Amino acid sequence: QVQLVESGGGLAQAGTSLRLSCAVSRSILSFNIMGWYRQAPGKQRELVATITAGGSTNYADSVKVRFTISRDSAKNTVDLQMNSLKPADTSVYYCTVKSVLAGTYWGQGTQVTVSS
What we know:
By secondary structure, this protein is an all-beta fold. It is built from no helices and eleven strands. The strands form two sheets. Strands 2, 4, 5, 6, 9, 10 and 11 form a seven-stranded mixed β-sheet that branches. The protein is globular. The N and C termini lie far apart (40 Å).
């Protein structure tokens, strides 16, 4: 079983930054793709950003330029740097990792609240 633990969420003012971190209990080199999703109250979970084992990244249009996803294979972490935060970024943010062989795993989520 793989465990993912997110940290770094909290309350931020619009225009400021937060950095989310996801600690993975297994080497992230064993996963094909890693990413962050978010879910606001009453809305479906949506993709924020993904990064492949090869380092290719993908972002939702709403966060392009403002957010940056990265991974550290030595620490087994997947981070999300969020700049120029907007109230619309308020959500619970979930870390996920996926392996064709091992399946998909999710963290418990971390709340991000952005005030105007």
